[in-house]
């Protein structure tokens, strides 16, 4: 495979890589809702929501702090529907809301960072005050954002945070809702969100933000289905073991057209004391072709094949909703001859059970708030 064909292949792969995420997310959301006889009854208590946001870019790197010039402002429009007990997990999570949203926001420096337009999927969970006038909720958002400005060696050399127009978007949303009447609600909240391309391009320090929000919800279609109260079965299998093999690509840290292959092998143990949440630990083995050139660039020394391998141990927490498990892990290298950013790492992502023993894995490995690479893979569970 010559270098020209290789680069063309990698660019096509990168495009498919990003565009396929929404197809994957929609498949997961709708298949989660298809485990019952009334799986087509998706619309229940359809509500339209509007919010305005005001906040700051959090400068996790000194170069970002230097570039942030102003506070950020934006708005969101969302469509949500209410779960009502088609699976036991609806009841376990206090009947969460789920839907699709659009967010527009400035990014603290219109000339360098531009603005962001984001399409995302989300789920909102009630933690206190369910069926009361005042309730406390939290939400998880995940999607893709289109940013109007990206790094360009000729026209936008200062943008070391974002190097591609299409980026991953993730957010944690905290809201206090006040139920005025059957059709109207208002809310106030705090939202943390992040933009990054998952190291599909460099530079890629990413952008982190915290915003305060005010919102209004209007119920378009009232409740159509009576809430169900499924019986909760006893947990028959509290322990799970998983072997995960993943791969992907990452861009060169030296801001060239080079891409490097990466792969990881993970052995995980998870324990679920309750159906919803669990914790565990595991061992990671990484192969990263970029480590050698990075070592030579940073330290001025030659590298060997052993520099391309790393091993670590991690601890994790897990949230399970039917076939979907969301994970957050923190690990430390026990073998690494060279570390680019730190001697510890984190991983956030999800695993989706395709079959009783086969899972799909999607996760992002990071150091601090800087993405290292995205892992696509399969897992075997036993």
List keywords for this structure.
382 residues; mainly beta; Porin; 2 domains; 8-stranded antiparallel beta barrel; 4 helices; flat
Strand order of the largest sheet: 1-2-3-4-5-6-7-8
* Silhouette: flat
What is the chain-wise order of helices and strands? HEHEHEEEEEEEEEHEEEEE
Low-confidence stretches: none
How many helices? The count is 4
CATH fold name of the largest domain, please?
A: Porin
Gyration radius, rounded = 22 Å
Q: Number of DSSP strands? A: 16
Q: Percent of residues in helical segments?
A: 10-25%
The SS-based structural class is mainly beta
CATH architecture of the largest domain: Beta Barrel
Number of domains: 2
Name of the CATH first level of the largest domain? Mainly Beta
Give an account of the 3D structure:
The protein is built from four helices and 16 strands. By secondary structure, it is mainly beta. The protein folds into two domains: 3-221, Porin, CATH 2.40.160; 239-381, Porin. β9 and β10 form a beta hairpin. It starts with a helix and ends with a strand.
